[in-house]
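Lab notebook, bench 4. Continuing the backlog of folding jobs that were queued last week. Each job is logged with the same field layout so the records can be merged later without manual cleanup. Today's entry covers Transcriptional regulator, LacI family, a 338-residue chain. Filled in by technician R.K.

JOB TYPE: sequence-to-structure
TARGET: Transcriptional regulator, LacI family
LENGTH: 338
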Amino acid sequence: MKASIGDVALKAGVSNATVSRTFAHPEQVSEATRIKVQAAADALNFSISRSAGILKSGRTYRVALLIGSHAIEWFTAEIIAGLNDVLRDAGYDLVIYPIEGAEARDAFFEELPVRNNADAVFVSSFGISPDEVKRLGTAKIPIVGVNTTSEGFDATVGIDDKEGIKLIVRHLAKLGHRNLLYLYESFSSTLGFSSYNRITGFQEACGTIDGMNARTLAVQKNDNIIDAAISEMMAQDNPPTALCFHQDSQAIPLFFRLQRSGLSIPLDISVTGFDDSAFAEEAQLTTVRQRPHDMAVAAARKALDLIEGRPVSKPFETFPVQLQVRGSTAKPRTTPLL
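JOB STATUS: finished
OUTPUT FIELD FOLLOWS
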């Protein structure tokens, strides 16, 4: 016969109510009790009806994560991992919605409030309009931003992208660089990614330094950003002495390409990134460290507090960034590249 809640309670040495609470609201019981109840349930092959719990609570036990692309890169992967680390233990499923085009965007913001199919919404890295915030608000669910510049959220976590890139510019300036090139892939015109602040931050920081010659180069998605970087180094009469990439994943391939071109980092060119993502340390890339996993954990905890009606500690939280100086930056060379 199928095991019951009473069977699990008897085996775990707890009450029926504690077993029910463990599955419906795991955050309300101690870790030791959760482990004990789960072990008893596993031994008895017990499973609780999720639909019954949903009907009783009026919740879906599902949260939505909006991202700006179908590609799951390092940052998004860290966000997903951090959210799941908290939400899984609380009994919530995480559903990912890529919001890449206008049609997908309109469909999500129109249909979610009507369907009432999530208990909270996370928006990662891109902006949503006041009208979209209002439409989500009609669903009466928390909206939590992760690295987004939009207003109207119930809680947010993020970094100061401008401050991060200013650390890079100041570091290069102290080394003696006065000819910098910032490279990035063109942004979607409709999503308003928060990392665009790195570009404006770069321009602002360079504008405060005497004698600084700084340019930005937007590379189209169909073009290769490494080819663009090498072309700038070879074709310009006064080529840049340092290349600043919008993110690490764009900078690291340059290390391999320059070797084939007979150039080296940092003797011929200094290179920086942003993120301190996978392989940045192995490549000895000077970069700015951010911790998206930690931000996601904090965002998930804020969302659970909002769902449960608890007060939120630090609803709008800015996380620190750190300059990681490694072997890809040095004083500029004193002789021409060619």
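OBSERVATION: The first strand starts at residue 62 and ends at 67.
SIGNED: R.K.
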